[in-house]
Amino acid sequence: MKKGMSQAELARRIGANQASVSRIERGKEPPYPLRSIRIARALGWEGDPAELFEEVEPDENV
Question: What is the pLDDT of residue 19?
Fold first, then answer.
C-alpha cells in the first residue's frame, strides 16, 4: 500500500473491510465508482480516481 497506509487503515477510512481492500489492490475486485472516490479521498489523490486503478507494468527494480 502506498502512502505509508496499511490496508486496514484504508479500509477503516473508506468504511470497508481489509479483505475488500486487498482484493481491489490485487485486481480481484473492481473498486466500483463510489468506493474509488472514497479511496482517492482517503489517499489525498487529486486526480481522476480511475487513474488509481490503471494497470501498470511491474517495476523490475523493486
Answer: 96
Burial of 24 (0-12, 13-18, 19+ CB in 10 A): buried
pTM of the model: 0.78
In the chain, what's the furthest Cα-to-Cα distance?
34
Lookup result for grid cell 472514497 = 38
As a whole number of angstroms, the distance between CA 55 and CA 14 comes to 22
- What DSSP string runs through 1-42? -GGG--HHHHHHHHT--HHHHHHHHTTSS---HHHHHHHHHH
